[in-house]
Amino acid sequence: MRRILAILLSVAFLLPALATPAAAQDARTFAETGKTVQGAFLDFYDAKGGSQIFGAPITDEQVENGRTVQYFAKARFELWPENPPGYQVQLGLLAVQLGKVQPPIQADTSGDPNRRFFPETGHVLAFGFRTFWETHGGLDIFGYPTTEQLVENGLIVQYTQRARFEWYPDDAANPVQLGDLGREYLGLGPQPVAGGTTAPAADNDLILFQQTNGGDIYTVRPDGSDLRKVAHGLDPSWSPDRTHIIYASWDYPWGIYMANADGSNPHLVYLEQYLQSPQMSPDGRFIAYSQKYQGERLRPAQVDGRFQLVPVLVDLWRVAAVNVQTGQVHQVDSDDVCVSPTWSPDTRLGFNGIQGIYILNQIDHDRKVTQLPNTTPIFESPSWSPDGQYFAFQWRQHDHEEVGVIDAQGNGFHLLTSSPPFTTPANNLTPSWSPDGKSIAFLSDRTGKWQLWVMNADGSNQRMVPTGDLTIDYQNVHERPVSWGK
Q: How many other CB atoms are there within 10 angstroms of residue 454's CB atom?
C-alpha cells in the first residue's frame, strides 16, 4: 500500500513538469515588441496570416468595455466566447472607428473584370487590392471596403472596415501591404520606414524633357552634357525650387508623380486618370493639370439619307488644380479644349482655351477667368515668364507652328522663330523659359527630325541641344514635353 501511494505521489509531482512544454506551445513572446500572444488569439494569428496580415503584438491582452482584446500593429483581436466555434475571435472595425469612411458611389457598371462592386457599402475594390482581399481572407478578415482608392502621404491606399491596403509598385514580391491601423488607433504613430533620399541641390542649367508622350524623361544641359534618364511618364516639369520633378502617368497607378531632381524617391501625389501637363504653383500649394474626359457634342452625320446634327461622345479637355496637402480639387475651366496650364509668379494661372489664352486670377475663391486680349485659337501652349511680364507660346501659322511672345496685357506680339523663304516650313513649338528668363527652350523639326533647341529670349542665338542618338517624338496631343525653369 505504501508503495502504491509513493508511486501516485511521484506521478502527481511529475504532472506539472510534463504539462509545461504543452503550455509553452500555447504562448509566444515576440522579440520585436516584448509582448506575448496566447491561447485562442495565438491560434487565430497563426491560422489567418500571421505578421503579414496582423503585424506584431503591441499590447498584452487587456479588457475594454468588458471584452478581452489585444492590439497588433495592423489589427485588434477581440474575444467573443459566446460565439460558435470558429468565430470566437473577431477583428475590430478599426477603420470605421477611425472615421475612414466615404459616401457610397453609384453602382459600378463598367463590366471590368478587375473591379468588384460591394452594394453593402457602395464601394469598389479593383486590380491588386481586389486580388489581395480575395486571396488573404476576404470578408472575414478585412470586411467590406469603406472608401475608394485614395492618395495618402504619396501612397495609393484604400480602407476596408478592418484594414488599410497600401500599394507599393516598386515591390514586385509584395505590391499590396497592410497599414498599421492598430498603431494609428492607439495614437502610437507609424513605425519608422527606411528609404527616401535627400533632394539634390537646385541646378538652374538643367533642361527637363520627354523622349515621347508617356516615354522616358531626361535632363540635359544646353550644351548637351550630363544627359541622364530620370523618370518615365509624360509632360515633366520642375518644382518652383527645382529640387523636384513632377510628371504624369497614364499607366496604373495613374496620376501625378513627384521625384527628386535626379529621379530618386518617386511617389504619387494625386491619383486620377488621363492627366497631362502638371505644373506646381510658385508657393507649392497646388498642382495644375489638364485632363481628358468624354462628353456629348452635336456632330453632323448622315441619317436616313441626309445630314443631321446628332449627339456623339467626343474627347474633351479641362483644366483643374489639386491642393497638394488636402487633395481638394478646384475645377478651373472646361471649354472643350482647355489645356497647358502655366503659373505666374503671383499664382495666377494661365491656360490655353478654345478662343486663345485665358487667365484665372486665383484658385481658392472669388475666381474670375478672363481672356488675354489679342489672342485667338491659334495661340497654343502658353508659358508664363519667370518675371510675370510675358507669355511665350506656339503660334499656328497656316501649315506649321512657330514660337512667339506677347506681354501679359496682350500687347507686343512678335514671333521669335521663322522658316527661311522658299523652303519647307519647319515646326517650332512648346516653349519653356529658363529660370532667369533670359533664354527659351523649345522643340523643332527644322533638321528633319524632332530635336531640343534653345535660344535667347529675343530669338537670337538659336542652337540645337545635342542629345546623341536619342530620338524625340512629338505627337501633337496637347503634350508639354519641355521644362527648363517652370
A: 20
CATH number of the domain residue 226 falls in: 2.120.10.30
Residues recorded for the chain: 486
- In this structure, is residue 435 part of a structural domain? yes
- Asked if residue 407 is part of any domain, the answer here is yes
Taking CA atoms, 476 is separated from 114, 213, 320, 443, 481, in Å, by 32, 9, 21, 12, 10
Amino acid at 329: V
CB 184 within 8 A of CB 98: yes
Cβ burial of 309 (10 Å; 0-12, 13-18, 19+) is exposed
Give me the number of domains the chain comprises: 3
pTM for this model (two decimals) = 0.67
Instruction: Report mean pLDDT in 10-residue bins for the chain, 486 residues.
Output: 41 38 67 93 96 95 92 96 93 92 78 87 92 95 92 85 91 91 80 42 86 95 95 95 93 88 87 94 93 85 82 89 85 86 96 94 86 96 96 92 96 92 86 96 96 97 94 93 88
- Write b or e for each residue in 329-342: b if 16 or more Cβ atoms lie within 10 A of its Cβ, otherwise e: ebebbbbebbbbbb
204 is written with which cell numbers? 538652374
Q: Is 143 within 8 Å of 90 (Cβ atoms)? A: no
Task: State whether 220 and 353 are in the same domain.
Answer: yes
Residues 264, 265, 270, 274, CA torsion sign: positive
Give the C-alpha separation, 410 to 357, whole Å.
9
Residues 6+ apart with CB under 8 A from 468: 224, 227
Whether residues 58 and 176 fall in one domain: no
pLDDT at position 3: 45
What's the confidence (pLDDT) of residue 107? 75
Nearest to 333 by CA among 289, 285, 297: 289
* Through-space distance between the first and last CA atoms of the chain, rounded to whole angstroms: 101
pLDDT of residue 215: 94
Q: What was the pLDDT predicted at 154? A: 73
